[in-house]
Specification:
CATH superfamily: Gcn5-related N-acetyltransferase (GNAT)
Number of domains: 1
Low-confidence stretches: none
Strand content: 35-45%
Order of helices and strands: EHEEEEHEHEEEHEEE
Structural class: alpha+beta
Radius of gyration: 16 Å
CATH architecture: 3-Layer(aba) Sandwich
CATH class: Alpha Beta
CATH topology: Aminopeptidase
Distance between the termini: 31 Å
Length: about 220
């Protein structure tokens, strides 16, 4: 079983690529990787995921998500934390039944745009109202999602999927090779939406990265 961590205030872009490839993630300056997690009383096997961007193609349902949200505005800029994002986070966390986070500070450093690495926020607005905010680390040849919060009252918009699609689009525009959406479990869970992307690969801790076979 893998359960490791370390602290780092700065990692360069190439170093982040290497860490993601080895299954590491981070919240702020706390880096971690683990192969098992208790979820609702069940021991679940953790699988890091990544999308090989050259092989990504929209599914019909993902195309519908984009069409459904054409009325929204997207802003991509260096990450920052303010009261509007804190308020969105507190509404968003009501979705969780266990492992409920305290604040955005659990995930982002006090300098979220640069510590421990470059980070961009992808914000989705309806007029002046923030509906979703996701935070994307920028490496040399890859990007990695840190955290995303969205408005629970707008669940029919599938904003979690939308922010992933926007992150993929932005990563491809930068010429990145991989997009890392984070961990999921081999067992069914609320993370399963991360498993429904073409070009998906998963890390088998003992043998490296493998193609993930999408369910038909």
């Amino acid at each position: 079983m893998i359960s490791e961590y370390f602290m780092a205030k700065h990692v360069d872009a190439a170093g982040m690529d290497m860490l993601w490839q080895q299954g590491w993630r981070h919240f702020g300056v706390y880096f971690f990787r683990y192969s098992m997690m208790d979820h609702e009383g069940t021991a679940c096997r953790v699988i890091p995921l990544r999308v090989e961007l050259s092989k990504f193609a929209l599914s019909r349902s993902q195309a519908r998500v984009l069409r459904k949200n054409r009325d929204l505005q997207v802003v991509i800029r260096p990450a920052s934390i303010d009261e509007t994002k804190h308020s969105l986070f507190y509404r968003h966390r009501e979705r969780f039944k266990e492992n409920i986070p305290d604040s955005l500070s659990d995930f982002m450093s006090s300098k979220p745009d640069s510590v421990p690495c470059r980070n961009e926020e992808i914000c989705v607005y309806r007029g002046d109202t923030l509906l979703a905010a996701s935070f994307l680390d920028i490496g040399e040849t890859a990007t990695s999602a840190v955290y995303a919060a969205f408005e629970p009252a707008e669940h029919k918009r599938s904003l979690g999927v939308l922010t992933m699609l926007l992150a993929i689009e932005y990563s491809r525009s930068r010429g990145s090779r991989y997009y890392y959406p984070g961990y999921a479990y081999r067992e069914p869970s609320f993370y399963d939406y991360k498993k429904r992307f073409a070009g998906l690969e998963f890390l088998e801790w003992a043998s490296g990265w493998h193609k993930y076979e999408l369910a038909v």
